[in-house]
Design a protein that fits this description.
heterodimer; A: 612 residues; alpha+beta; six-stranded antiparallel sheet; 17 helices; rod-shaped; disordered C terminus; B: 156 residues; alpha/beta; five-stranded parallel sheet; 13% strand; globular; disordered N terminus
Chain lengths: 612, 156
């Protein structure tokens, strides 16, 4: 076997291998591109294999067979151009010329028969080389527009086209210089082998090479991605991700985030191809991929989604790549890349799109976590600030009140004892009383704020509620004899004495305030089925029905209350409810306008309740 | 450090106000007045002045301090019958003061006197004998002091 034969054998094997690979791809994904590729390499493989097989089976190389083979050879330039038109736009003139060339070649071959006369042969070779070089140049231009692995693959294809054209050119040399046919044959074989090698790398690169080609771009994207979660806003992150993905594809990219409330994908940057909101379950390509949760390539967006065809055309979108962005079970959104033309190698781009989408998911999830952490921190800080403010306000308001109240009370006693000052004693007493009232108001405001914040401090310990109720009533009876008390003995519960004192005090105060001086205010305390029950009944103005649901609301004052006659800011009952809630008790009111109100409070009793 | 005490003043022999104690006649403490003062610790000078006016009027000897550190210095000189202790103070607060007292293995009746809603909890935290919430009625303060003060050097 000579070196030439070895090269030829290798060559043949390589063409058959490439055909096998692209045929498998074409079988798996029957698109125009894969079929055209298979057709082109099928023709090549047939041409290289036909000779040896015909020799092997002793098939006589008749004129018809030779003519068919010659026609098939001349079909190659047309197939190359057809392959090119699948990826990029080719001027009509070029397409027409190529088709014309094919027809002319067919006519020449059929009419003159083989062997061709040298002039016709030179014409055919010129045609062949011209188309091959045009195709090679077009692929080089394509590679300049694309990036990453696609760029490398396009370059390899361009090299293959160029080398193949060169091989034909050199083969044509034997017509011009028949003497050098040995050298020409060898050079042709070597060039054809190089072309085949280039095509193999271009059309069916081994996985390792593919990853190697992909790496620099991915690395650049990942390096940038690691800094993205720290960008100031999610929008800024989305724009960066879109830019990164677009650069990686050499196309425009958009990211849509899923909004569970609207049940739609939201796009800020749809490039005119997508509306700002794409409903879940709609026919939009984004919605379809979001539902399927699998990356998809749509070579012709207008055909895949005809309702939207006009928008796609207006936006200059031919092909669309869509990949779902999800983190585990959580569906975050989708990544969509728009290209004017079908990308040369959609299978690689599909894998890349999914990779970028996965990376986007990581970035967005990190961002969500950072946001969540910041939100929790801000909330804690706000709560802390409010609490700090409350305790600072409590301290700062109460400190001067302490002096004011104390000093007024000291003077009140001294004035009462001194003959010369006795006439001023009521005035000082008034100061003391008002200081006490101011202090109560401050307490109410602070307590109401604490209840609102859920920060009312209640220290429950076993105590006799009856004693507390009795104390409150005694305190009020000092001036008002109309309070009637009916309290059972030993109403032991787990309570905060001071808070229960405050509660009963508020209710008694309320009853006294809204009823006439000659009517009784009845305070009862008893044990009822293990619970401690306290009621405060007055025969005063009562509440209208419409006010009943709001009686315990903050700042609520009933419609029939004349604000000028009854002072108050409407916090007493709100605080009562807060205190009762902290004791796991209940509070309610029964009322009739003009007949009076009865407030009821129940508190959980101590364990021995049922025995009493 | 000499700040505070001379200025705040220990005045065992100064009688009450010109008009006598606010509640003079109702109660009198002739023996304690000379020997065992009440130590009042509060960072607010107005409250200190008001309490001095009131308690001296009641016949008590008073020693004042504006923070925990001053109070500790005062304790080097006198053994009070009772300490009225504000909690939130600069330099050394109520908790710090109580901790230092424990370190020094000294024990006096303490009444926590604070405007915070946590008065009772704080009192328990530092192992005080009682608490009174600001603002208070002076009668109530007097009752609390009577309940807890040490008489003639012995715990009540």
């Amino acid at each position: 076997m000579t070196a030439l034969q070895l090269i030829q054998g290798l060559n043949n094997a390589l063409f058959v291998l490439i055909f096998g690979l692209v045929a498998v791809v074409a079988y798996r994904r029957r698109t125009r591109v894969t079929l055209d590729t298979a057709l082109f390499f099928g023709a090549l493989a047939f041409l290289v294999v036909e000779g040896p097989i015909a020799q092997l089976i002793g098939f006589p190389g008749g004129g018809v067979t030779t003519a068919i083979i010659a026609l098939l050879v001349m079909a190659l330039p047309y197939l190359m151009l057809r392959l090119l038109t699948d990826f990029t736009s080719v001027p009509l003139l070029v397409r027409s010329l190529t088709l014309g060339g094919l027809i002319a070649a067919a006519i020449v071959i059929v009419t003159t028969g083989t062997p061709l006369d040298p002039v016709a042969a030179l014409f055919l070779i010129g045609y062949f080389v011209a188309v091959a070089l045009y195709t090679a140049l077009a692929f080089i231009r394509l590679s300049a527009r694309s990036s990453g692995v696609t760029r490398r693959r396009t370059q390899a294809v361009a090299a293959g086209m160029g080398l193949f054209g060169l091989a034909i050119l050199v083969a044509g040399g034997s017509i011009v210089a028949p003497a050098a046919s040995g050298f020409v044959s060898g050079a042709t074989q070597v060039l054809a082998l190089a072309a085949a090698g280039s095509w193999l790398l271009g059309f069916a690169p081994p996985g390792r090479l593919r990853r190697y080609w992909q790496e620099p771009e991915l690395r650049a994207f990942l390096e940038r991605a690691s800094t993205l979660p720290r960008l100031p806003t999610t929008d800024a992150i989305l724009r960066e991700l879109e830019r990164g993905a677009g650069d990686s594809f050499g196309a425009r990219a958009a990211i849509g985030l899923y909004d569970p409330n609207a049940r739609a994908l939201r796009f800020d940057n749809g490039h005119g191809a997508l509306p700002p909101s794409v409903p879940e379950g709609s026919r939009f390509l984004a919605a379809r991929v979001f539902a399927a949760q699998e990356a998809q390539f749509f070579p012709d967006a207008a055909r895949a989604h005809p309702e939207q065809a006009r928008a796609y055309r207006a936006a200059g979108v031919g092909a669309v790549l869509v990949a779902p962005i999800s983190a585990g079970e959580r569906r975050i959104g989708i990544l969509e890349a728009f290209a004017e033309q079908q990308p040369v190698f959609s299978s690689d781009d599909l894998a890349l799109a999914q990779l970028l989408a996965d990376q986007a998911a990581v970035v967005l999830e990190s961002r969500a976590l950072i946001d969540e952490a910041a939100r929790v921190k801000a909330q804690e800080e706000a709560a802390k600030l409010k609490e700090d403010f409350l305790s600072a306000a409590a301290h700062d308001l109460k400190t001067p009140l302490t002096t004011l109240l104390g000093q007024a009370q000291i003077l009140e006693v001294r004035f009462g004892r001194d003959q010369t000052l006795a006439q001023h004693q009521p005035a000082v007493a008034r100061v003391a009383r008002e200081a006490r009232r101011l202090s109560t108001l401050v307490d109410d405001l602070l307590d109401a704020s604490r209840i609102e914040e859920g920060k009312l401090e209640v220290r429950r310990e076993p105590a006799d509620v009856a004693v507390v109720v009795r104390q409150v009533v005694e305190r009020h009876r000092a001036g008002k004899q109309r309070i009637v008390l009916d309290a059972h003995d030993r109403l032991t519960g787990s309570v905060d004495r001071r808070r229960i004192d405050q509660l009963v005090d508020n209710l008694v105060e309320n009853g006294l305030k809204y009823s006439a001086d000659d009517t009784p205010v009845e305070v009862r305390a008893w044990r009822d089925d293990g619970e401690i029950h306290i009621s405060v009944r007055d025969h005063g103005i009562g509440f209208p029905m419409t006010d009943l649901p709001h009686v315990f609301d903050r700042f609520h004052r009933a419609a029939n209350v004349d604000a000028r006659r009854y002072a108050g800011i409407g916090l007493g009952l709100y605080i009562c409810r807060g205190i009762v809630a902290q004791h796991a008790g209940r509070i309610w009111v029964e009322s009739t306008v003009g007949a009076g109100s009865t407030f009821h409070v129940t508190l959980p009793g101590a364990g021995d309740g049922k025995l009493n | 450090m000499t700040f505070g005490f001379e200025r705040a003043g220990l005045s065992p022999d100064v009688p009450g106000t010109p008009h006598g104690g606010a509640h003079a006649g109702a109660r009198s403490h002739p023996t304690e007045a000379a020997g065992t003062p009440i130590l009042v610790v509060d960072d607010d000078p107005e409250i200190l002045a008001m309490l001095r006016d009131f308690l001296e009027g009641e016949g008590f000897a008073i020693r004042t301090a504006t923070n925990g550190a001053e109070a500790l210095q005062a304790l080097d000189q006198v053994a009070p019958a009772l300490i009225l202790l504000d909690m939130r103070m600069p330099v050394l607060d109520g908790w710090g003061f109580a901790a230092r007292l424990r370190e020094r293995q000294q024990a006096y009746p303490i009444i926590v006197m604070t405007a915070a809603q946590s008065a009772q909890r704080w009192a328990e935290e530092i192992g005080a004998n009682g608490f009174i919430a600001k603002p208070f009625d002076v009668d109530e303060l007097l009752q609390t002091i009577e309940r807890h003060r040490r008489r003639n050097g012995r715990p009540n």
